[in-house]
Amino acid sequence: MNEEPYLNCPICKQIDLVRKARAIYETDFSTTEYTEILPTPPGTNWAPLPVSRQSGGPSFLARRLSPPPKPTLKTETSASAGYVTWLLTAAVGFIILFSSSSASGASPALVCLGLFLVSPIIASIVQKNSVPQNIEQIKKENKDTLERWQRALHRWDQCYYCGRDGVVFIRGESNAVSPEMMPTILYQSTT
Ligand SMILES: [Zn+2]
């Protein structure tokens, strides 16, 4: 492994305690022992002896080195919801205005014009985003979010952990951070 000097820890310059973050995440398990007191069987009055059991799971370090979680994406329905609100407001406003105006004798054309000017304002009061959000815009944002995450995931796969210094670093890079700060090196732009 001497032909791969870029795997050396940027802090201590050693390689002996360096392990791949993914390997730690996937294989580092810890077990804790606990004692279970069993209930007295029904109809008897003897107490069973306590039983020693083990529970296991990813170690504390493994959990700290877990990959970046998949981001939640914006749903396109939230965009169409704004549009539906806008249409509904327009429809309700139209009915109210039309029924009251036919009594007072105002021109229906004028009412329609006024309605189309007023309804977006009402919609903006009902919903914070007055203009229905562009679905294409949301699709693009989601695509960017996913691509950023996939890049971060790819960088996570190149993360190494030095047990001597307790730091994470990406092979060939000089930054070394605590596992809690791992997202800062995963999401940093390298271009
Ligand atoms: Zn080190």
Task: Briefly characterize the structure.
With 191 residues, this protein is an alpha+beta fold.
Give the arrangement of secondary structure elements.
Elements: E1 18-20, H1 21-27, E2 29-36, E3 51-58, H2 60-64, H3 77-104, H4 108-126, H5 135-156, E4 159-162, E5 167-170, H6 182-186
Bound molecules: zinc ion.
Describe the model.
It is a single chain. With 191 residues, the chain is an alpha+beta fold. Helix content is 45%, strand content 14%. The protein contains 6 helices and 5 strands, in the order E-H-E-E-H-H-H-H-E-E-H. The strands form 2 sheets. It has a 3-stranded antiparallel beta sheet. A two-stranded antiparallel ribbon has the order 2-3. A hairpin with a 4-residue loop joins strand 4 and strand 5. Helix 3 runs antiparallel to helix 4. The longest helix has 28 residues. It is flat, with a radius of gyration of 31 Å. The two termini are 28 Å apart. Zinc ion (ZN) binds next to loops.
Helix content: 40-55%
Number of helices: 6
Structural class: alpha+beta
* Head-to-tail CA distance between termini: 28 Å
Q: What is the averaged pLDDT score?
A: 82
Bound molecules: zinc ion
Largest sheet: 3 strands, antiparallel
Strand content: 5-15%
Overall shape: flat
The largest sheet has its strands arranged as 1-4-5
How many strand segments? 5
Features:
binds zinc ion, two-stranded antiparallel ribbon, flat, alpha+beta, 191 residues, three-stranded antiparallel β-sheet, 6 helices
